[in-house]
From TrEMBL:
Keywords: Transferase
EC number: 2.8.3.12
Origin organism lineage: Bacteria, Bacillati, Actinomycetota, Actinomycetes, Streptosporangiales
Family: Belongs to the 3-oxoacid CoA-transferase subunit B family.
UniProt enzyme class: transferase
GO molecular function, one term: glutaconate CoA-transferase activity
Annotated protein name in UniProt: CoA-transferase subunit beta
Gene3D superfamilies according to UniProt: Glutaconate Coenzyme A-transferase
Origin: domain of life: Bacteria
A Pfam short name: CoA_trans
Keyword Transferase: yes
Record has Transmembrane helix as a keyword: no
Amino acid sequence: MSGRADGSAAPADGPADDYTVDELMVCVLAACFQDGDQVLNGLSSFIPVCAIKLARRTHAPDLVWIAGGSGVSPRSPRLTASTFEWPLWRDSVMYVDVATELWDWVADERLLRTFCAGAAQIDAHGNANNSVIGSFDRPRVRLPGTAGLGDMGSLSKRIVYWVADHSPRTLVERVDFRSAAGYLGGGGERARLGLGGGPELVVTNLAVLDFAPVSERMRLRSVHPGVTVEQVLAATGFEPVLPAEVAATAVPTVRQVDLIRRVIDPEGYRRRGFRSPA
């Protein structure tokens, strides 16, 4: 057992029995990132930012992170009330001009291959909505807009969605407005239009979902410990594809939980936006 900088003993690793759903989601997302990946975080993306930081401290030390669209691989990132503020990138290897450089990088299919995003609505085929709820001309709710999600959804990027409130109003049969292309109507429509990439995973506070290969419809991949398949189906606004067996989501390790709480996000910004499962 190795020691910490403060002289206390580091925790032995192994499955944790004391973790929260936000920490579980951070660990699931962190596992999506590979060493050498290039990733970009969005606005109010506390869970993805924690996942990026966790991956860099564990299995992916050479993951390249464009923090807040401005700082490349920051050495001492600090979470604040926004994931687009200078404390996140103030000590970076280099800096990117968002207006003149970043989007050239985004448009290059070789760069920034993975994008982790949230959305107000995600439908059965992975299309996302961050624009309006209801009619576009007379919306019930006007949302922040597409930002970079529209670009990422139309390029050959690997999209991973995270959802803090798995409910029928968030996971819907069809989005009210398509801010970002997923698999469109499914059945190969995205590929027929010449679009590469696409959504890969949807990590929620209840489950992990992916997409069935032929129909390109969302498929239930695992349920979190303590959550049943029936609870997930009741909280989903469409009928997902069900495999013969639905696995349980892997729990965080003791070391991962310790890093998240003590080093990565001691202030608990990752808990913003969560509701307790029914």
